[in-house]
Specification:
- The protein has 407 residues and is of the alpha+beta class.
- It has one domain: Outer membrane efflux proteins (OEP), CATH 1.20.1600.
- 71% of the residues lie in helices and 10% in strands.
- It has a 4-stranded antiparallel β-sheet with strand order 1-2-3-4, with no helix packed on it.
- A hairpin with a 2-residue loop joins strand 3 and strand 4.
- The protein is elongated.
- The two termini are 53 Å apart.
């Protein structure tokens, strides 16, 4: 009974510790730096890639074994006559020449190096996906702010229209139009809240965190300091995906060398001991396999194809890396310029025009439908500005992923 209680308390303590760690991770404000840290350490894709490294190291441990085949012991015993027994015991000890073991270890080492580089490449992609999800949450938050501002202005217009209707300065039509606008504004707030919930769920998934409606996300959608102050990344030829492709070429070359090792005969030591006609008989010798039919043709053919595929993939990745970086740099500059254009000219003018229209409606110089047209133009400009900010952030992420310059 005591043991069961101890086991139960231990499991309860482990569960409480795990839950506390997850809750603590959720209580942290998710800034850009925090997202990069979490994605690099606990993104599901990164954790899976790390287990593949362990698998490759396990294969390397198996390749280091001196002899792949275990010794074999065969024994027989029979009796031909009533008091005459016959027995035989045979031990076969395979001996593997060093060249085959070294080639096998070369393949395993190259596989380990490839998996290690793939972990770095997976981490690079996971951080990019997490940052994209993070900025989409900020984008959703800003759209909610814009929707709430629309609702506030709609309530103000509805109040003004109702007051003007009571004083006889406006028709019932203005009140109906104002109520319709208010209803649409309230619906937009709810719709943007739904979009924010989906964006938060995506962010939690890519970070490997449990979903929570209280996930604290801190930052500004317009803040591009993370991309503006990036350190110089590695050379295009030193990106982890290219390093992994080079390791694949080496693994294929080692596999081809291992295929040629199949031409070397296998040698085994044999020791035979038995009783025959009441006499002990001991024999020693060698067993040699003759590579007459299976000469490793299939293994060498497969290794050649693998080497050619790895070579083509390496060349294509090397060409694509420089292109990706230059294209991402150009796209980022254009996206930032587009956002600044609206930030410096479009949004201020739209807000100024909207304020002038509201004042004109209060003064009776403009009817409500015309005011709403101006307001919709201002709202569309505001939404376009938020979309441009998101595009600039995503373009910065693409550039950072292409260069691999995370900090």
């Amino acid at each position: 009974m005591c043991k069961h209680n101890l086991v139960f308390l231990g499991c309860l303590g482990l569960w409480s510790c795990t839950a506390a760690q997850a809750h603590g991770a959720l209580r942290d404000s998710l800034t850009v730096a925090r997202v990069v840290e979490l994605a690099g350490a606990r993104a599901p894709e990164v954790l899976i890639a790390q287990t593949r490294v362990l698998e490759a190291r396990g294969r390397l441990a198996g390749a280091r074994v001196l002899v792949q085949e275990n010794p074999a012991i065969d024994g027989v015993a029979n009796s031909n006559r009533r008091f005459e027994r016959r027995s035989e015991l045979e031990l076969t000890l395979p001996i593997e020449l060093g060249i085959r073991r070294s080639k096998r270890m070369g393949v395993a080492r190259a596989d380990v190096q490839r998996e290690v580089h793939l972990v770095s490449d997976t981490r690079r992609q996971a951080i990019g996906a997490a940052l994209a999800a993070y900025y989409r949450v900020l984008h959703a938050e800003q759209r909610i702010v814009a929707a709430r501002e629309r609702k506030t202005l709609a309530e103000e217009l509805h109040r003004v229209a109702a007051e003007k209707f009571r004083t006889g300065d406006a028709a019932r039509l203005d009140v109906n139009v104002a109520e319709t606008e208010l209803s649409r504004a309230e619906s937009e707030v709810l719709s943007e809240q739904r979009a924010r919930a989906g964006a938060r769920a995506d962010l939690a998934i890519v970070l490997g965190l449990p979903w929570s409606a209280t996930l604290a996300v801190a930052g500004e959608l317009s803040d591009r300091s993370y991309f503006e102050h990036q350190p110089a990344g590695p050379e295009p030829g030193q990106r982890p995906d290219i390093l992994a492709a080079r390791s694949e070429v080496r693994a294929a070359a080692a596999g081809l060398a291992l295929g040629w090792a199949a031409l070397i005969p296998d040698v085994s030591l044999r020791w035979n001991y038995g009783h025959e006609d009441g006499q002990s008989v001991e024999r020693r010798g060698l067993a040699v396999t003759v590579p007459l039919f299976n000469l490793g043709q299939g293994e060498r053919g497969e290794a050649r194809a693998r080497r050619e595929r790895a070579r083509v993939e390496l060349e294509s990745r090397q060409v694509a890396a420089a292109t990706e970086i230059e294209a991402a740099r150009t796209a980022y500059s254009a996206a930032v310029a587009a956002a600044r254009q609206l930030e410096e000219h479009g949004v201020p003018r739209a807000l100024e025009t909207e304020a002038m229209a509201r004042e004109s409606y209060r003064a009776g110089k403009m009817d409500l439908p015309a005011v709403l047209v101006v307001r919709r133009e201002a709202l569309d400009t505001r939404r376009e500005y938020l979309d441009r900010l998101l595009e600039a952030a995503l373009s910065g992420i693409d550039l950072t992923v292409a260069t691999g310059a995370f900090h």
